[in-house]
Write a structure and sequence with these properties.
6 helices; alpha/beta; six-stranded mixed β-sheet; Rossmann fold; about 30% strand; four-stranded antiparallel β-sheet
């Protein structure tokens, strides 16, 4: 795989947090390269640093050491406004617990990332199309409280794709779902990837969910990644 095909490159990442017992080092010298259109799965037990890595790649947090490049741009050199634009325009993120706004409908939740810089009609059409893709076209005017957990996660997936990002990051997206709904969500991810070709990094503790990914990596404590 040539360097020109790479869309994201993280090298030597380290991240520590303050805890009651002093500094807790979560990542130490963690590196990852993601190619355009590639699907990468990272598996590992809770606490090894999977979510921390995704937060760094998404620009939600900054590393203590190391660098992250998106194309030719370095995230660690970006100001807060540049990072916000990176998150809004280039990265979609799916969390375990949905993070939908309860006072807004499914359609309005999906519209949120694309209201800036676009007219309402364009945002509505884009959101409606994505909800159709995840099988929720007829539920677009329902509120999160009127939906099942699996439906809420599908709304969250549609929202993550609203800005047509180059990268999709998914943090234990089936961790709050039963087995059947978890498999359905993974099928939706596969279909969306086939149609949109968005590069993807998904973290999970369940290796059964990532069969068919381009690469499956195992994360060890400290963030070391190796082929699973």
């Amino acid at each position: 795989m040539s360097a020109s095909e790479n869309i994201l490159h993280a090298a030597g990442l380290a991240k520590s947090y303050q805890s009651g017992r002093g500094q807790l080092e979560v990542l130490h010298d963690c590196s990852l390269t993601l190619a355009k259109h590639e699907r990468v799965a990272i598996i590992g037990q809770s606490g090894v640093g999977k979510s921390t890595l995704l937060h760094l790649l998404a620009g939600l947090d900054r590393a203590d050491r190391g660098s992250i490049r998106f194309g030719e741009r370095r995230l660690d050199a970006m100001g807060e406004a540049e990072l916000a634009a990176y998150r809004n325009q280039h990265v979609g993120m799916v969390f375990q617990f949905y993070h939908l706004l309860p006072e807004f409908t499914a359609l309005e939740n999906v519209m949120m990332p694309i209201l800036i810089g676009r007219d309402i009609s364009t945002a509505q059409h884009r959101a409606a199309d994505l909800l159709e893709e995840v099988g929720l076209g007829e539920r677009r005017h329902h509120f999160p409280s009127q939906m099942s957990g699996g439906e809420r996660q599908r709304v969250a997936i549609a929202r993550a794709l609203a800005s047509d990002p180059e990268i999709l990051l998914a943090d234990e997206p089936t961790g709050n779902l039963d087995h059947e709904n978890g498999l359905r969500v993974m099928d939706i991810f596969a279909g969306l990837h086939e149609r949109h070709r968005t590069a993807m990094v998904l973290v999970t503790h369940n290796p059964e969910l990532v069969i068919g990914f381009d690469r499956v990596l195992n994360m060890e404590p400290g963030g070391h990644l190796a082929a699973a």
